[in-house]
Structure formats: structure tokens, C-alpha cells
Amino acid sequence: MRYAKYNELCSSDFAWLQDFPRHWRIKRLKFSTALVNEKVSVEESPLSYLGLEHIESWTGRRIDGEISNSEGLASSFLASDVLFGKLRPYLAKVHLAQQGGLISSEALVVRSNEELHAEFLKYYMLSRDFINIVDSSTYGSKMPRASWDFIGNLPVLLPEVTEQQAIARFLDFKTAQIDALIAKKKTLLEKLAEKRTALISHAVTKGLDPSVEMKDSGLAWLGKVPSHWKVIPIKFSLAIPITDGPHSTPQFYDDGIPFLSAESVKNDRLDFSRMRGHISEDDHAMFSKKYKPKYGDVYMVKSGATTGAVARVETHDEFNIWSPLAVLRPHSEKSLTDYLFYVLKSKPFFYSVELSWSYGTQQNIGMGVISNIRMALPPLNEQEQICSHLEPLLQKVEDQKSKIDSVIDRLMEYRSSLITNAVTGKIDVRDFPIPAPTAKEVCHA
Predict the structure, then answer these.
(1) CA-to-CA distance for 305 and 260, rounded, in angstroms?
(2) How far apart are CA 287 and CA 281, in angstroms?
(3) For residues 133 and 12, what is the distance between their CA atoms, to the nearest angstrom?
(4) DSSP state of 63
(5) Are strands 310-312 and 298-301 parallel, antiparallel or unpaired?
(6) Angle 128-135/118-126 helices, nearest 10 degrees?
(7) Do 165 and 301 belong together in one domain?
(8) Among residues 396, 409, 408, 406, which one has the least CA distance to residue 195?
(9) Residue 143 in contact with residue 87, Cβ under 8 Å?
(10) Which residue, of 4, 45, 422, 426, has the greatest Cβ tally within 10 A?
(11) Is residue 188 part of a domain?
(12) Do 168 and 277 have their domain in common?
């Protein structure tokens, strides 16, 4: 869609802002806002605590879910304050508070004055160009942070407040439309994930022959399995006892051997971009005495929010792992490696993991418990047939997922560009017609 343009522009001294409408003013952010630095003891305050993990990146929405717990001091905020995550700013954690509360000290609490509308400020600080320039200023290699000294000196564009409000209303309307489209695409992704799990679950519990004689597995969560299959503890399918990484915290460096933990297990693969850090050759050699990664190993997260997530080792490069990852090394036949991975991805297996969770500060499952979870094991030739049967089906699901992911990425990019263009005066939305909400929309508001 083509939007109107401002007729009269003037040049900015800031390259990333380029030209902006002549009737807009430009000021340092610190002269239109105040940094609120009121620290409160979390334990002593009745206010609810908001963790940065509950602010959605690039949208500013508060994510539903269990409220974070914290200790020590946190920053207090009021309704209409803008909360800006200074830790890893490229994550774009920007939230307009709807009510008072407490937030991690890793967030800045920014309060606008009468010449800067809070909604406009939220979108301005959420714009792609603003995030990029803040990110360029960060310091610290492991946990990069931005400082208010830098952010406060950045320029903010100031239309009249009524125009700021019009821009904010436009962005509220358009981002809501985009978010609704993204939500529909994410629903399709959830259905694809369910389809994938169903395909795997049926294959590793019922086999491929619908006419085969079945028997009771003796396990309610597993149900009936082909009569000639074994039902055994998972440990009897492994080449070595289940182990894990070191329980001590190593020294991290900018370069060295990649060191992975639970956050590196993503979408059934090891994501090295989400590594915990790098360790030295000496630490790697020491940790490798307990466990050294091998191609074909299967990892299962055994503690934390993603307990039960799995991934295969698909590289011969050197790396090491931390204690939240349990290592399952199947016997050497490739079919068993792939079959074991599919078993761990099946719904019955995950259900058995959920039944075995224990809770401390977070959910977890012991390696001894994992070892004794029972699995249905067909003869080797059937394992090969099942894996060969699943591969093209799952690839088709993956191809569909990739197309939907690509659409979501484009929608998110459009969302970001629209925000940036609106708050920097690249488009004129003052006269954009926003339809009145329908009765249904009012009821759901």
C-alpha cells in the first residue's frame, strides 16, 4: 500500500535519520524524557515483577505466562512509562507499561514529558533504526549492554503531540492487522508440529503394517504395540550409560571451543549461534574425560523450561556441553540412531517424561529416570523401514514450515519498516482513515 508523503523536508545531522518533515522538531531524548532510577526490594514490595523474558521482541507485547520471580533490587515503574531492555538491545525489548510494577535492573525506565506522547515514544524506541544505533554502542562481549549516557543523547523527532497521537493510532491499527496475520500463520505452524508429532508417534509405536498382530505393552501411555516388538528400558538400546556435561561452570572466552547448553537445543537441532560461550582447549580436554561429543549422539534437555527437547549431533567439529544436557549414545547402527531420535520425539515418550518430572526451582528429570523409561523396539530391518518411511514425510512438513516461516519473517519486516517510516516522517499518516471498531471488536477489547 502506498502512503502519503510529507511535502516539505529538512536535512538531519544524523545519517540514520536522514530527512524529516520541516515542521517537526528534533531534540536530544534526555531533554524530552526522564530516566527513572527508583530501586525497590523485590521481597518487600507488593508490586508484581516483570522479567525481560516476558516482553516480546520487536512487538513490545507482554507475554502471558508465569510471572518471573526475582530477588534483590529492581526498578519500579508507573503506567505509561516506557521500559527499554538495555541488555542485548538487538533483542528489541520495549514495553509501554499499562500499570505500575517492578522490572529487572537490566531495563531502563523512561518517562516522557508533556511534549512527547508515551505511545509515540514506545514506537520510536522500537523502530529498527533506533535499535540498530543503540546496539552499535553496546559494550561487553558476553552480555552486551547499552548505557543511558548514549541513549539519552540520541535525537528524538517531535511532531506536535496531536500528530504524535495520530501516528500512534495509525501504528496501533496497522500493527494489530499484521499481528493478526502472523497469529494465523503461527496457528498453521502449531498444526504442522502436531502433524509431525502424530506421524512420528504412530510409526514408532504401531509400525507401518496396519494388519500386524498387536499386543498390550503393559503401559497405559504406550498402549498396544506390534506383538513381535520388544518393550524395553531405553538404557538397553544405548552403547554407554546416559551421561551429561560438566557440573562446574567453566571460564568463557571470545574464541575457543564452543560450549553448548539447553538453549542451544532448538527445532530438533543444535544451534551453535545460541552457545553459552567458548572454553579453552585445556577445559575442553578436562571435560572430555567425562564426555566427548560424537556424531550421532542424541541430546535431551533434562532441566529447565525446555525439559524434554531433543537434538542430534550432526557435526564432527569439536565442542562440549554443560550439565543440563543428557547424552544418549545409541548402538552404532545408523537406523538405531535415527529410530531412537524419533522415539524421543514421539508423544508417548514425552508424556512419560512429563510424568517423571520433579520440581525444585525448575522442572527437571534425572538420568536414571530417563534410562528406565520404556520404549517399543522393532527388529533392525523395521527400524530402517520406519526411518526411511518418515524421512520424506517429515521433509514435506519441514518444507511447508519453511514457507510459513518465510511469510512470518516478511510480515515482521514489514511491521518494523512501517514503524520506522511512520516515526521518522518517511510517510504521512495524519489523514489515514482508521475504521471504527466493529461491535465484535469492542466486545473483545
Answers:
(1) 16
(2) 10
(3) 15
(4) P
(5) antiparallel
(6) 60
(7) no
(8) 396
(9) yes
(10) 422
(11) no
(12) no
**Can you give the residue range of the structural domain that contains 369?**
208-377
Assigned domain for 106 exists: yes
Closest CA to 129 of 287, 215, 244, 15: 15
d(CA 97, CA 136): 26
Task: Say whether both 72 and 172 belong to one domain.
Answer: yes
Number of domains, the chain: 2
* Cβ(422)–Cβ(128) below 8 Å: no
Q: pTM score, two decimals?
A: 0.84
Residue 299 β-bridge partners: 311, 327
**Within a domain: 292:** yes
- pLDDT tens for the chain, residues 1 to 445: 789 999 999 998 888 888 999 999 999 999 999 999 999 998 889 999 988 888 999 999 998 765 555 668 899 999 999 999 998 888 899 999 999 999 999 999 999 999 999 999 999 999 999 999 999 998 876 678 999 999 999 999 999 999 999 999 999 999 999 999 999 999 999 999 999 999 999 999 999 999 999 999 999 999 999 999 999 999 999 999 999 988 988 999 889 999 999 999 998 999 998 888 899 999 999 999 999 999 999 999 998 888 999 999 999 999 999 999 999 999 866 667 899 999 999 999 999 988 887 766 678 899 999 999 999 999 999 999 999 999 999 999 999 999 999 999 999 999 999 999 999 999 999 999 998 776 555 455 5
Pair 243, 327: CB distance under 8 Å: yes
DSSP symbols for 287-345 = HTTT----TT-EEEE-BSTTTT-EEE----S--EE-TTEEEE-B-S-HHHHHHHHHHHH
**Residues 217 and 363 grouped into a single domain:** yes
Calpha distance 254→140 (Å, rounded): 11
Secondary-structure breakdown of the chain: helix, strand, coil percentages, each rounded to the nearest 5: 40, 20, 40
Three cell numbers at 117? 506522547
Question: Which residues fall within 8 angstroms of residue 209, CB to CB, at 6 or more apart?
Answer: 226
User: Does residue 75 share a domain with residue 153?
Assistant: yes
Asked if 61 and 105 sit in the same domain, the reply is: yes
Same domain, 105 and 241: no
Contact criterion met (CB below 8 Å) for 309 and 366: no
One domain for residues 351 and 419:
no
CATH of the domain at 124: 3.90.220.20
Domain boundary among 377, 397, 430: 377
Q: Judge whether 398 lies within some domain.
A: no
For 399, list phi and psi in degrees, rounded to 5: -65, -40
Q: Please write the tens of the pLDDT for every residue from 267-284.
A: 899 999 888 889 999 999
